[in-house]
Amino acid sequence: MSTPFDHLDLPALSGAAGTIRLPGSKSISNRTLLLAALSAGVTHINDLLSSDDVDRMLEALVKLGVRVERGPSPGEVRVHGCNGAFPVKDADLFLGNAGTAFRPLTAALALSSGHYRLSGVPRMHERPIGDLVDSLRQLGADVRYLTAEGYPPLEIFPGSVRPAGRLGVRGGVSSQFLTALLMALPLTNAQSRIEVTGELISKPYVEITLNLMARFGVTVTRNGWQSFQIPNAACYISPGILHVEGDASSASYFLAAGAIGGGPVRVVGVTRGSIQGDVRFADALEVLGAAMSYGDN
Fold first, then answer.
1. Which residues, other chains included, contact 219 with Cβ-Cβ below 8 Å and sequence gap of 6+?
2. What is the pLDDT of residues 149-205, one digit of tens each?
3. What is the rounded distance in angstroms from the CA atom of residue 30 to the CA atom of residue 104?
């Protein structure tokens, strides 16, 4: 017997036109929140994505003693930075299935001289994190598995963190591991170098990390995609006001609709100067013959 969910009818359309405002990028939203929390000063963030990942990061930061104020409009928050030291040194954090919160927070908390327990939904506990934990242990961090080796949940104890010197990470695993290390290493106040073994995957996401770190005052020297050097005595400083770009991946569907359906389709929230790699999709449409124009946002 047929049910309404057995199939989906898509009627033919004569064209596509209109304006769409993009949701904020999840990758940029959670990176921005953590960097703002670790920085000196107050960061006024606009266009923050409303999603489970972002909600879990916000909840975790508040539990860690970071003052977060919601603004009058959706997606607007003010984060009072803790200048590299979370005020709360003992906390249980539930992070759902938010990989963009779990991995970077693991690295930052492992270098924060506190006692923390990080857990998530069952699916999160199936996502490997061993490469990141191995790298953190090279720094003297005390990170322990509570159930299966190499997987969350985790318990973090105050470790004997020492200057990194050189730190190795495999390029063929999640780029979130490299992102987590890059964002956390300035907390050591020492020059450090990450060397990537093998081909680095998801380079555009690492590029997002480097761009945002630079906006918060820490410039990483990159040698191709094989090594990354964090300067000595690096510290995060709030840029004051920061706008989260619209999600470039989401933009591609609407841009394609405009190209195929005659348009014009206007996508608000991301432009040619985006730090997201997926914005190059617009260049591909231009090569195919679509007429593209760009504004400031």
1. 213, 231
2. 999 999 999 988 877 678 889 988 889 999 999 999 999 989 999 999 999 988 999
3. 9
Q: Omega before 264 cis (within 30°)? A: yes
Calpha distance 166→138 (Å, rounded): 9
Task: Write down the pLDDT at residue 99.
Answer: 93
Taking the C-alpha atoms of residue 211 and residue 72, their distance in angstroms, rounded to an integer, is 28
pLDDT at 17: 93
β-partners of residue 193 are 166, 229
**Closest by alpha carbon to 242, among 32, 67, 80?**
32
Q: Which two tokens stand for residue 60?
A: 């975790």
Q: What is the pTM of this model?
A: 0.91
Tokens of 107: 């690295």
Residues of the chain under the 50 pLDDT cut: 1
Asked if 154 and 125 touch (Cβ cutoff 8 Å), the reply is no
| Half-sphere exposure in the Cβ direction for 164 (13 Å, CA) | 29
**β-bridge partners, 170:** 197
- For 243, list phi and psi in degrees, rounded to 5: -105, 130
CB-CB contact of 274 with 245 (8 Å): yes
For residue 153, whether the previous peptide bond is cis, meaning omega lies within 30 degrees of 0, is: yes
- SS3 of the chain: CCCCCCCCCCCCCCCEEEEEECCECHHHHHHHHHHHHHCECEEEEECCCCCHHHHHHHHHHHHCCCEEEECCCCCCEEEECCCCCCCCCEEEEECCCCHHHHHHHHHHHHCCCCEEEEECCCCHHHCCCHHHHHHHHHCCCEEEECCCCCCCCEEEECCCCCCCEEEEEECCCCHHHHHHHHHHHHHHCCCEEEEEECCCCCHHHHHHHHHHHHHCCCCCEEECCCEEEECCCCCCECCCEEECCECHHHHHHHHHHHHHHEEEEEEECCCCCCCCHHHHHHHHHHHCCCCCCCCCC
